[in-house]
Design a protein that fits this description.
This protein is mostly helical. 46% of the residues lie in helices and 10% in strands. The protein has a single domain, classed as DNA Binding (I), subunit A, CATH 1.10.30. It has a two-stranded antiparallel sheet with strand order 1-2. The longest helix has 15 residues, at 16-30.
């Protein structure tokens, strides 16, 4: 894919080393009391389903592959189903996806 195509499709090139560093930061944040508090209610950020704190995964609102960082403002608890469906979508793309599902 050319640089112009990456720009057109809103893809940011993020190298593997940067992704590795951000995943390590996410693993460190997962061990904190801040993250335990975020998951304590056991509710998915996206679908608001009560799945239990042990069934929640850590999701990056702006995915690492799209230039997101492992910061408190970019991390949310998500059920595995939502996390798998969201993949590397940006928040506005995810909202558009949900809107299309409701219309369908």
């Amino acid at each position: 894919m050319t640089t112009a195509q990456k720009t057109f499709f809103n893809f940011s090139f993020v190298d593997d080393e940067e992704i590795r560093r951000e995943k390590q930061r996410a693993r460190q944040l997962r061990k904190t009391s801040w993250w335990r508090k975020k998951c304590a209610k056991g509710v998915c950020h996206y679908c608001n389903s009560q799945v239990g704190s042990d069934m929640l995964t850590m999701d990056h609102l702006v995915p690492l592959s799209r230039g997101g960082k492992s910061t408190r403002g970019n991390l949310v608890p998500a059920c595995k189903e939502c996390n798998n469906k969201k993949k590397n979508l940006l928040p506005m793309e995810w909202e558009e996806y949900l809107t299309q599902l409701q219309k369908g």
